[in-house]
Design a protein that fits this description.
The complex is a heterodimer of chains A (113) and B (111). Chain A is mostly beta strands and 113 residues long. In chain A, 0% of the residues lie in helices and 50% in strands. Chain A is built from no helices and twelve strands. In chain A, strands 2, 5, 6, 10, 11 and 12 form a six-stranded mixed beta sheet that branches. The N and C termini of chain B lie far apart (38 Å). The chains are: A mainly beta (113), B mainly beta (111). At the A-B interface, strand 6 of A face strand 5, strand 9 and strand 10 of B.
Chain lengths: 113, 111
Amino acid sequence: GNSVTQMEGPVTLSEEAFLTINCTYTATGYPSLFWYVQYPGEGLQLLLKATKADDKGSNKGFEATYRKETTSFHLEKGSVQVSDSAVYFCALSSSDSSYKLIFGSGTRLLVRP
Amino acid sequence: SQTIHQWPATLVQPVGSPLSLECTVEGTSNPNLYWYRQAAGRGLQLLFYSVGIGQISSEVPQNLSASRPQDRQFILSSKKLLLSDSGFYLCAWGTGLTEQFFGPGTRLTVL
């Protein structure tokens, strides 16, 4: 079945450091891939998405490339800020009629000044 | 533009009491609707989804039920809450093989 695996957290970085959060997936067909961000006490916000192989999603300095050959969708940012501290979830869309999202377990990012 | 509302924002209930959480969506028609639960410090678990009025699919057997009485209204219920029902409940909507949009969530504490 479909599944998403994310790197364990928490990830602790200093401000302006480079960020990578690894995400790999298992899926049948060609799912769309997403990164969501959750700030404390809030719901999830879509950060970026990619709908086909080799697509690069980007938003707010974050990027992720849909790599079909390695079944990966790693999240990167060149210079993190304290305000980026949050929990990040990788997800893929189910290809059945429910279109439900399959989420990874989430990675907590803590950025220190 | 589309918006999604959830209420209440927080809820503290005793074990054995009933539950009703409501979710409404504005600005779209015939959305797919979803209920997720997030236990403390953990990922998201899909509880129910609905592709149309009166159509409910359950992902996991549990103490909860869902209903969709109107196109843009999704309700999560329980007749008798358990301690294990505590968590952060998120409603989401989507229109197909694309992203879902999440509401602000309801934090439920069962004592």
